Amino acid sequence: MTNPAKDKNVTADNFVFTIERTFDAPRERVWSAWTDEQQLGLWFGPKGCPIGFGKMDFRVGGSYLYRMDMPNGDQWWGKWIFREIVKPEQLVMITGFSDSNGEMTRHPLAPAWPLQMHSITTFTENDGKTTISLEWTAYNATEEERQIFFEGKDSMNKGWGGTFEQLEAFLAKG
Predict the structure, then answer these.
(1) Contact between residue 40 and residue 64 where contact means Cβ atoms under 8 Å apart
(2) Is the pTM of the predicted complex or chain greater than 0.85?
(3) pLDDT of 124-155, one tens digit each?
(4) Are 45 and 64 in contact (CB under 8 A)?
(5) Contact 54, 64 (CB under 8 A)
(6) Alpha-helical runs (H) found in 11-142
(7) Are 80 and 93 in contact (CB under 8 A)?
(8) What is the CA radius of gyration of the chain?
Protein backbone atom coordinates (compact mmCIF):
# COMPACT_ATOMS: atom_id res chain seq x y z
CA MET A 1 0.00 0.00 0.00
CA THR A 2 1.28 3.43 -0.89
CA ASN A 3 1.75 5.88 1.91
CA PRO A 4 0.06 9.03 0.59
CA ALA A 5 2.20 11.20 2.86
CA LYS A 6 5.32 10.06 0.95
CA ASP A 7 3.87 9.74 -2.55
CA LYS A 8 4.65 12.94 -4.47
CA ASN A 9 1.88 12.13 -6.99
CA VAL A 10 -0.76 12.45 -4.28
CA THR A 11 -1.97 16.01 -3.89
CA ALA A 12 -4.87 17.72 -2.16
CA ASP A 13 -6.86 17.41 -5.40
CA ASN A 14 -6.63 13.60 -5.66
CA PHE A 15 -6.13 12.61 -2.02
CA VAL A 16 -8.24 9.75 -0.69
CA PHE A 17 -7.84 9.00 3.00
CA THR A 18 -7.74 5.25 3.56
CA ILE A 19 -7.43 3.18 6.69
CA GLU A 20 -7.82 -0.55 7.19
CA ARG A 21 -8.10 -2.73 10.26
CA THR A 22 -8.80 -6.43 10.80
CA PHE A 23 -11.01 -7.56 13.69
CA ASP A 24 -11.24 -11.01 15.26
CA ALA A 25 -14.97 -11.35 14.60
CA PRO A 26 -17.17 -12.59 11.75
CA ARG A 27 -18.40 -10.06 9.23
CA GLU A 28 -22.06 -10.30 10.30
CA ARG A 29 -21.05 -9.35 13.85
CA VAL A 30 -18.91 -6.39 12.70
CA TRP A 31 -21.61 -5.26 10.27
CA SER A 32 -24.17 -5.33 13.09
CA ALA A 33 -21.88 -3.29 15.37
CA TRP A 34 -21.52 -0.69 12.59
CA THR A 35 -25.17 -0.50 11.49
CA ASP A 36 -27.21 -0.90 14.70
CA GLU A 37 -27.73 2.38 16.54
CA GLN A 38 -27.76 0.73 19.97
CA GLN A 39 -24.40 -0.95 19.33
CA LEU A 40 -22.86 2.15 17.70
CA GLY A 41 -23.62 4.11 20.85
CA LEU A 42 -21.41 1.73 22.80
CA TRP A 43 -18.19 2.12 20.80
CA PHE A 44 -18.28 4.74 18.02
CA GLY A 45 -16.54 8.10 18.21
CA PRO A 46 -13.27 9.52 19.43
CA LYS A 47 -11.89 8.08 22.66
CA GLY A 48 -13.32 9.85 25.70
CA CYS A 49 -16.27 11.25 23.72
CA PRO A 50 -19.20 8.89 24.22
CA ILE A 51 -22.26 8.94 22.02
CA GLY A 52 -24.99 10.54 24.14
CA PHE A 53 -27.73 10.29 21.55
CA GLY A 54 -28.19 8.32 18.36
CA LYS A 55 -31.11 7.93 16.00
CA MET A 56 -30.85 5.84 12.85
CA ASP A 57 -33.07 5.38 9.83
CA PHE A 58 -31.10 2.57 8.19
CA ARG A 59 -32.15 2.61 4.54
CA VAL A 60 -30.84 4.19 1.36
CA GLY A 61 -31.71 7.87 1.73
CA GLY A 62 -32.02 7.47 5.51
CA SER A 63 -29.61 8.87 8.06
CA TYR A 64 -27.92 8.43 11.41
CA LEU A 65 -27.89 11.51 13.66
CA TYR A 66 -25.70 11.29 16.73
CA ARG A 67 -24.27 13.45 19.50
CA MET A 68 -20.75 13.15 20.89
CA ASP A 69 -20.35 14.35 24.47
CA MET A 70 -16.96 16.01 24.68
CA PRO A 71 -14.83 15.91 27.85
CA ASN A 72 -15.17 19.71 28.30
CA GLY A 73 -18.97 19.46 28.30
CA ASP A 74 -19.47 20.55 24.69
CA GLN A 75 -21.78 18.51 22.51
CA TRP A 76 -20.82 17.84 18.90
CA TRP A 77 -23.35 16.46 16.46
CA GLY A 78 -22.71 14.33 13.41
CA LYS A 79 -24.77 12.91 10.60
CA TRP A 80 -24.44 10.08 8.11
CA ILE A 81 -26.65 9.93 5.03
CA PHE A 82 -26.86 6.43 3.57
CA ARG A 83 -26.39 6.34 -0.20
CA GLU A 84 -25.74 2.62 -0.75
CA ILE A 85 -26.23 -0.35 1.56
CA VAL A 86 -24.92 -3.74 0.45
CA LYS A 87 -25.40 -5.96 3.49
CA PRO A 88 -22.97 -7.12 4.90
CA GLU A 89 -20.32 -5.91 2.44
CA GLN A 90 -20.36 -2.16 1.98
CA LEU A 91 -21.78 1.16 3.15
CA VAL A 92 -21.55 4.31 1.08
CA MET A 93 -22.44 7.47 2.94
CA ILE A 94 -22.14 11.23 3.04
CA THR A 95 -20.91 12.19 6.50
CA GLY A 96 -20.29 15.41 8.34
CA PHE A 97 -20.89 17.48 11.40
CA SER A 98 -24.39 18.75 12.00
CA ASP A 99 -26.59 20.55 14.45
CA SER A 100 -29.13 18.78 16.67
CA ASN A 101 -31.71 19.04 13.86
CA GLY A 102 -29.43 17.22 11.42
CA GLU A 103 -28.49 20.26 9.32
CA MET A 104 -24.89 19.93 8.14
CA THR A 105 -22.52 22.34 9.88
CA ARG A 106 -18.83 23.08 9.92
CA HIS A 107 -16.32 21.23 12.10
CA PRO A 108 -16.51 22.88 15.54
CA LEU A 109 -12.75 23.41 15.68
CA ALA A 110 -11.81 23.62 11.99
CA PRO A 111 -14.10 25.91 10.00
CA ALA A 112 -12.25 25.21 6.73
CA TRP A 113 -12.72 21.43 7.08
CA PRO A 114 -14.94 20.08 4.25
CA LEU A 115 -18.62 20.33 5.06
CA GLN A 116 -19.25 16.82 3.76
CA MET A 117 -17.21 13.67 3.28
CA HIS A 118 -17.91 10.81 0.89
CA SER A 119 -17.32 7.61 2.85
CA ILE A 120 -17.02 4.05 1.59
CA THR A 121 -16.72 1.36 4.24
CA THR A 122 -16.06 -2.18 3.03
CA PHE A 123 -16.34 -5.29 5.22
CA THR A 124 -14.39 -8.37 4.05
CA GLU A 125 -14.27 -11.69 5.93
CA ASN A 126 -11.44 -14.21 5.84
CA ASP A 127 -11.17 -17.19 8.23
CA GLY A 128 -13.67 -15.69 10.65
CA LYS A 129 -11.91 -12.34 10.81
CA THR A 130 -13.27 -9.16 9.28
CA THR A 131 -11.26 -6.42 7.64
CA ILE A 132 -12.78 -2.97 7.49
CA SER A 133 -11.45 -0.75 4.72
CA LEU A 134 -12.48 2.87 4.99
CA GLU A 135 -12.10 5.47 2.24
CA TRP A 136 -12.89 9.13 2.74
CA THR A 137 -12.84 11.92 0.23
CA ALA A 138 -13.74 15.58 0.61
CA TYR A 139 -17.15 15.93 -1.07
CA ASN A 140 -18.19 19.04 -3.00
CA ALA A 141 -15.17 20.72 -1.42
CA THR A 142 -13.41 23.94 -2.31
CA GLU A 143 -9.68 24.00 -3.05
CA GLU A 144 -9.02 25.30 0.48
CA GLU A 145 -11.17 22.53 2.02
CA ARG A 146 -9.37 19.84 -0.01
CA GLN A 147 -6.01 21.21 1.16
CA ILE A 148 -7.12 21.19 4.83
CA PHE A 149 -8.41 17.64 4.38
CA PHE A 150 -5.09 16.57 2.80
CA GLU A 151 -3.13 18.14 5.67
CA GLY A 152 -5.37 16.39 8.21
CA LYS A 153 -4.35 12.83 7.30
CA ASP A 154 -2.28 12.29 10.47
CA SER A 155 -5.14 13.51 12.60
CA MET A 156 -7.61 11.24 10.78
CA ASN A 157 -5.27 8.26 11.24
CA LYS A 158 -5.10 8.97 14.97
CA GLY A 159 -8.85 9.52 15.30
CA TRP A 160 -9.85 6.43 13.36
CA GLY A 161 -7.16 4.40 15.14
CA GLY A 162 -8.76 5.24 18.49
CA THR A 163 -12.24 4.54 17.17
CA PHE A 164 -11.11 1.15 15.85
CA GLU A 165 -9.56 0.34 19.24
CA GLN A 166 -12.96 0.98 20.82
CA LEU A 167 -14.65 -1.25 18.22
CA GLU A 168 -12.12 -3.99 18.90
CA ALA A 169 -12.82 -3.80 22.67
CA PHE A 170 -16.58 -3.81 22.01
CA LEU A 171 -16.36 -6.88 19.77
CA ALA A 172 -14.19 -8.70 22.32
CA LYS A 173 -17.05 -8.50 24.82
CA GLY A 174 -19.03 -10.78 22.54
Answers:
(1) yes
(2) yes
(3) 999 999 999 999 999 999 999 999 999 999 99
(4) no
(5) yes
(6) 27-35, 37-43
(7) yes
(8) 16
